[in-house]
Amino acid sequence: MENTNLAERDFFFLREKMRKQNRVWKKIKEGKLKKLTAQLLWMYLYVRRYWLLIAFYVLLGASGSVLSLGFSLVTRDLVDAVTGMNTKGIGRVVALYVGVGVG
Length: 103
Fold this sequence. Notes:
By secondary structure, the protein is mostly helical. The protein has four helices and no strands. The model has no long low-confidence stretch (mean pLDDT 83).
């Protein structure tokens, strides 16, 4: 009984896999692959021309994310200091808060 279920699952798996492969071959025959390579070539030429600006904007976005995360952590510490959980470190937290805000 269990061998029959296993054979049926294998058959359905292979049939689905062949269906997907046939769909891919059909797309290739329709010219989708040539269109995709033409678009990739255009993107490569565009990126090659402006790679410094693209790298700058990627770094700018990453630094914005890091600053946002730092701001969240400092705000958590500030709330702890104000509510009395950690009153000794309020000066340090305020300095960090200003530092992250300026940075």
